[in-house]
Amino acid sequence: MTHVYMPPSIRHFEPLHMVFSTWVDHLPFGYDLVAAIRPKLLVELGTHKGLSYFTFCQSMKENEIDGLCYAVDTFEGDEHTDKYDEAVFTAVNNHNRQNYHGFSYLMRMFFNDALRHFDEDSIELLHIDGFHTYEAVSEDFASWYPKVKPGGIILFHDVQARLQDFGAWKFWEEIRGQHETFTFNHGFGLGVLRKAGGDRSQDSELLKLLFDDRSDNTAAKMRAFYVHASKHLENMRKLKRLNTAVVAKQD
């Protein structure tokens, strides 16, 4: 009998926080990855309006994971996002306090200033999504890699985005051959890297599909699955908006 991979995002995930972001294409995978790893410590570098970060937090809460989450960002913008006003931080902070009080914390500072707050080999899920030049991504990886627990996961956003002076794609191409990695190509791309070491005996089904089965067929099916999952989520949102509009019109 053929086994069907049926992750929690397909069964019961409806984003509580929606803002414009190219991360929208990876929400189901982000939700499922957190559920699979069940991290005790999760750190995001570069949060902006919080779409990816709050997806992680929502998965922590809904899957009853006992861990801590930290979002590191100046919340002032950069050359790629342009500068933005205090309203961005206020909105993110309010959503965080209303929904994830007690395990999620915003660290309003530069990435390098946050380093001292985390022990070596402690972070189980690290998301690198700050300034996207080659030099910035390279520095973030070099600085934070020692903080990641052996066997831990590092996510890189925009590894297929070849616009402006974005260089995440170039850095990703360089390090892919040096580590266990998996690449999602849709939605400007998402790179998944696993740090060497750690106990793999209790790996979730998702981690096994990403890193143990190295066949091209499995990789292609995983990519197709999460393209479909993101489209399904988008269609569900459209249907909900349509139903709301219909009800409003009837009233």
UniProtKB/TrEMBL annotation:
<dbReference type="InterPro" id="IPR029063">
    <property type="entry name" value="SAM-dependent_MTases_sf"/>
</dbReference>
<keyword id="KW-0808">Transferase</keyword>
<dbReference type="GO" id="GO:0032259">
    <property type="term" value="P:methylation"/>
</dbReference>
<keyword id="KW-0489">Methyltransferase</keyword>
<dbReference type="Pfam" id="PF13578">
    <property type="entry name" value="Methyltransf_24"/>
</dbReference>
<protein>
    <submittedName>
        <fullName>Class I SAM-dependent methyltransferase</fullName>
    </submittedName>
</protein>
<dbReference type="GO" id="GO:0008168">
    <property type="term" value="F:methyltransferase activity"/>
</dbReference>
